[in-house]
Each structure stands twice: as C-alpha cells, then as structure tokens.
C-alpha cells in the first residue's frame, strides 16, 4: 500500500486526486500534524508520496530513518516528483508513474546526477571539501531544485561555484548548507547544532606538531585528537601536518601522518623562529633552533597555503610532544578564459567547466547559457572588481573571445591565477586551408 500524506490544503487536494486515480493501492494517511502523518506512513506503508515541501519532509524524518521505504515528494505546484529516498527500491519508478496522473516531472536526486546545477555531491570537491553526512544530499538537492528557501552559511571566502538564487541567507529555512570545520555539537534541546543542514568539511586546518626523538605515533595521535577536541574542531578538516625540518623524518610523526592520510610540511628553524607565537620557550630554541615548533609551524604553513592564517588552538603538551592548530583563509581564484573564435561549438570543454566553477564572471560576451544559475555576470568595465573579489577569496572568471593570448601576465600571491586557452580563429578555417587527405589509389 502507498501512503499519501498532505501538508496543506493545496497538498490535500492533490493527494485526493492521486487517491482517486489509484484507489486500490493508495490510502490517505492523516494525523494532527503532517510530520506525524509522514512518520506513520513511513512506518506502516510500502511506499510514501508526500505532498509537502522537501525541506519539511527532510526535517520530519530526522532521527526517524525510513529504512529503505521509497519516499517521493511532490511540490504543491505539482511541477516535480522527487524520488527522495529508496531509489533502489522503486522511488524513481514511482515518481515516473505519478507523472501522467499529476502532470509533474519525475526527478532523481541520486548522488552523481548529471545535472550539475542541482547536484551537491561534488560541491567544493576540487577544493578538497568532503560531505559530513551524505544521507542528507538527496533532501537538500531536491529542495534546491524545487526552489524552496535553502540556507547557506560559511561559504564566504571560499572559491566556490554559484548556487541558485533560492540558496542564501533566509530566516529559519527548513533545510540548509553549512561549510564549517567545527565539530558537531549535541544538546538536549534539538537534534544537534547541524540540525537538518548539509555540512561540508573544508580543508582549512593545519596541525603543527613537535616531538622528542623516539616519541611514538600513539602519543602524538592522542595529543592531536585531544587538541582538536578541546577546540571543538573536526579532524575531517585537517589539511596537513606541519613541523620543523629537523623533525620531518621523526618516525613517530611520519607514522602518525601516514595513518591519518595527512601530508607533512616542514620548514627551516630560522623561518619558524621569526613567527610571533603566544607560547615560545627557551628549551625549544636550544633544542631545535626556534622558540616554537607546533604553533609556529601551524601558523606559517596556514599563511603560506592561504591568504592568511590564525591560531585556533594554542599549544598543548604531552610527556614528549606538542601540538597546535591554525586555520587558513583560502586563496581566491581568477581564471582567464578564452572563448574561441565566436562559434558556440568551438568553446572548449575546459572553458565551459571554468565558467561553471565561477561565482562571478566578467565578460562582454553572451554567456548566460554557459554559467550556473546564481552566477553574477558583469561587463568588462567592472574588471577591477574581478581582482578585488579574487583577493577576497571568490572564484572569478574573466572571459573574452579568442585564444586567451590577450591576457596580461600577472604575478601575485594574493590569489590563484589560471589560464584556459581558447581555440584560435584560424582553427575555424583549418579544414579549408589545406589539401584534403585522400586514400591511396589502387593504380598508384
């Protein structure tokens, strides 16, 4: 039996339409609250069709996993039928069956969908982002596609692609996206600090370590975990391990880094000695040539990899090791894109991808069909803004017709600079400017 749930008067009218069309296999599930009716339907029925906002469905099911029951969510305008959960058990087939009855479009929210306008699975993947709870991906993707208000927090300062206009700052949205290196906080008053938000872990943390000769990997691991935990930081956001050069090959440090999958970055002692830190010691200066290893290495590495860095966990000590954590501010990206000689079919795949990775595009060319929804497109008279926004950490593309040879060389550490060449104008006529290649003749 398919349970049908309505979240409003409009939803009830649509639900009754479905029940009338499929009287033998559907039943209307009702309760005092729509969320209670939905949970009851998930518990008792073989499949569920919910005429409710996607965010409301996701929120109702937090802490009440549907254990594989197919759940299809139909927005109240009946534009889309989202195969929200249990696709391998028939949710997408059910969404397809609903299409002729309700006049809606079936939509798959499976991770890896080819519609990169909506797919959030790869959001920030090129920057090293990971998803904290992939189970929330279908809920949030469907809410984005349905045009529902979706909150966005923590993405500023990262060179991320644009998201549709309904994703942004909203008052108490049912669903949201959060970019954070903070660990999850639990309390008795709600489902946790993350709530119903899709959380991305950015690679924003650098762990600095120092250790005496012969210190074991276990002691270092225990100290680093305690340092991260005390500061409320997520290990998933650690980008690398940093230390002084004379300790770079210390077996305990190497073994710990390999166990966690973190690369080790080492700096000369005289470089670290120039980094101001809150807890320098004469003992460290006498032993390795710098008054600080953990704090200085973390800070210097964060500032070298990003456009800035701050200490977020001061030095902690064990019997034979020290650890500290710094957070980096990521560098922005300015991509110079050559659009080729003007023909749409001669714009390269790399150029198209570069435009879709940007949240700001500066160009006088028509590119509305080449950028993601929500991308800000400005004319070249705003060229100065391109550099300003790249310095602030934004993903910017500067696009012009041609092969990109018009770009002036820029040397800067303030942001990452990339160039995506376009096809030259001559290439358009190349097939006509040379003799054709003919197969060999038998009588030759």
TrEMBL record:
It holds the Pfam family CbiG_N. InterPro entries: 4pyrrol_Mease, 4pyrrol_Methylase_sf, 4pyrrole_Mease_sub1, CbiG_N, CobE/GbiG_C, CobE/GbiG_C_sf, GbiG_N_sf, Precorrin_MeTrfase. GO terms for molecular function: cobalt-precorrin-5A acetaldehyde-lyase activity; precorrin-3B C17-methyltransferase activity. The keyword Aminoacyl-tRNA synthetase does not apply. Residues 37-110 form the Cobalamin synthesis G N-terminal domain. Its EC number is 2.1.1.131, 3.7.1.12. Residues 333-412 form the Tetrapyrrole methylase domain. GO terms for biological process: cobalamin biosynthetic process; methylation. Residues 205-326 form the CobE/GbiG C-terminal domain. Keywords: Hydrolase, Methyltransferase, Transferase. Transmembrane segments: none annotated. PANTHER family: COBALT-FACTOR III C(17)-METHYLTRANSFERASE-RELATED. This is Cobalt-precorrin 5A hydrolase/precorrin-3B C17-methyltransferase. It comes from Actinomadura namibiensis.
